[in-house]
Structure formats: structure tokens, C-alpha cells
Amino acid sequence: QVRLEESGGGSVQAGGSLRLSCTASGYTSFRDNNMGWFRQPPGKEREGLAVIGTSGQTFYADSVKGRFTISRDNAKNTLYLQMNSLKPEDSAMYYCVADGTQFKSYNWNYWGQGTQVTVSS
Known about the structure:
- With 121 residues, this protein is mainly beta.
- It has no helices and eleven strands.
């Protein structure tokens, strides 16, 4: 059974940085799966942020392009999200996702439990 566990969330002031990690287990081959990050602010819908393909190609939502960087370490079965120049509107629960495509939440088969990011002004 695939399990995704996020870490690295926390509280930061506007303009600061955080690095989220997601460790995957239960995979026969982590490297053969697309991975991504979503977020959900309180009272709002989930938003797809970044996707990384099996060949390392990356895709970003306009809201985070140029500020966030997604990467993966296949040897460690780990996904990362480096977040820079954080804004208060980036405050949300952040989710790691696996085995899917695009920025539609219903396209993704596996979800982590989430890690909270809070950005104060």
C-alpha cells in the first residue's frame, strides 16, 4: 500500500522560505510515478501547485511560478517543494500527491495527510 508522509511545514514571516518534503513508501518503483503538490486554504478548494514527471519535467501553477520549485530524489523515494518569497496567501494545508496528472485533484490516486504552512504578514 502506497503511503505518503509530508514534513517541513510551519510558521514563517512573509518573504521567508520553507522546504517541504514527502517520503513515499509502499512503491515498487517510485521513479515510475508522477508526483505533485496541492494545497488547500481554509474554506477553499484544493489547488494544484506543481507536478514533476518521471523524466524530471516540471509544471507549475501561475500562482507559484518563479517562487516554488518541485524536485525529487528517486534514490530516497522523496519529493520536495522549495518555497521562497512566501506570502500570507500561501497559508494552507499542503499535500503531497502521487500517480496522477495535471492539476485536477480527482486525477491523483494517492494523497498524504498534509502539512500546515502559515505565513504571517
